């Protein structure tokens, strides 16, 4: 009997994942078939579970299994402080670093008129609402140091100006352990112009 | 509610796939969650289907949804000719190239006394049985040009010698479009010693 139709469809779906191409997708699928009980079936089950239960927090856009995510719902998080990020991946990076203890607002992208991504798509009105509702005193714009990220940051700052909330951005400069030789010009320029007394 | 337990388990499983690490697994999982209906749920379903239906062909070791695979079962394949490969991935490569029209025998690995992989694990007795049962006149050893592949090829050739079947191996040499400058010494040496009159 022909097993190739399902397997080819599976390889096709895997090949659409970021970081995988046709060849690595084939290798991944063969690997899964060989590890049927310990990897393929658990993966199928977890994907189905996540697909059924996970959605966006109605308050901040983080992933959640209920209307409100664990971070928005936690009494242990500092109130009055919101960190604005582009994507859930950035929220995860902040959480892994264990350096921020307030709440988040996930934009879900950057402003992009060409791709028809406007302020409403990025939940910016919702962010403005939260400032009053949650008694927010400071908003940290932790957007990527890209043109799109910084354009979006400026727009958000402008939109929030009437609320009087303090607005800050992440410092730019040389990363810890960074070797000057490997840094791009923009980073070097930013690090130089923000130089501090030694 | 906390969505992180299932998502972290999912990232952990994805990170065990060949070619993916923790970072690319996180990106893949976020990508899937964003494409819930078009990618995550279809992937979960296909994995479950493949896990339920796909197994090894009892005759040749190719993937199959029944006892006997589509290639062994096809009346269109040339009889009397078996191509021995290490892995299903190699069978796929041969089929993509559309250059072989006989049947296969998938060893499922190479001989490796250290890893406790012996002749029975590689279905070599079954291969010997097939030579009589299918009236095979030629066996092509299409094993990888690695030490393990060639050691296994020599063992298989030795085992099949008493059957009197013709045994061949793939030619070694410069790949089509290959630039000498990029080839390893072993390939160059093999290509030189197998040189042909111009
Ligand atoms: Zn939330
Ligand atoms: Zn078969």
Automatic annotation (TrEMBL), chains A, B:
One of its GO terms (molecular function) is zinc ion binding. Belongs to the RecR family. Transmembrane segments: none annotated. A zinc finger (C4-type) spans 57-72. May play a role in DNA repair. It seems to be involved in an RecBC-independent recombinational process of DNA repair. It may act with RecF and RecO. This is Recombination protein RecR. Keywords: DNA damage, DNA recombination, DNA repair, Metal-binding, Zinc, Zinc-finger. It comes from Jannaschia donghaensis. InterPro entries: DNA_Rcmb_RecR (IPR000093), Rcmb_RecR (IPR023627), Rcmb_RecR_Znf (IPR015967), TOPRIM_dom (IPR006171), TOPRIM_RecR (IPR034137). HAMAP family: RecR (MF_00017). GO terms for biological process: DNA recombination; DNA repair. Residues 80-175 form the Toprim domain. SMART domains: TOPRIM (SM00493). The gene is recR.
């Amino acid at each position: 009997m022909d097993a190739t139709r399902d397997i080819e469809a599976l390889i096709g779906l895997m090949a659409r994942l970021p970081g995988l191409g046709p060849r690595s997708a084939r290798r991944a699928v063969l690997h899964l078939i060989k590890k049927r009980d310990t990897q393929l079936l658990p993966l199928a089950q977890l994907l189905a579970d996540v697909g059924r239960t996970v959605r966006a927090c109605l308050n901040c856009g983080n992933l959640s299994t209920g209307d409100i995510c664990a971070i928005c719902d936690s009494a242990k998080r500092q109130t009055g402080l919101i960190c604005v990020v582009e994507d859930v991946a950035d929220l995860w990076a902040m959480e892994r670093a264990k350096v921020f203890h307030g709440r988040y607002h996930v934009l879900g992208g950057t402003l992009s008129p060409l791709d028809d991504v406007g302020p409403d798509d990025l939940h910016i009105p919702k962010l403005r609402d939260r400032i009053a509702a949650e008694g927010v005193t400071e908003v940290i714009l932790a957007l990527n140091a890209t043109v799109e990220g910084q354009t979006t940051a400026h727009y958000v700052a402008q939109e929030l100006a009437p609320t009087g909330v303090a607005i800050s951005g992440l410092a730019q400069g040389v990363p810890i352990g960074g070797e000057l030789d490997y840094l791009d010009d923009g980073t070097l320029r930013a690090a130089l112009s923000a130089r501090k007394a030694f």
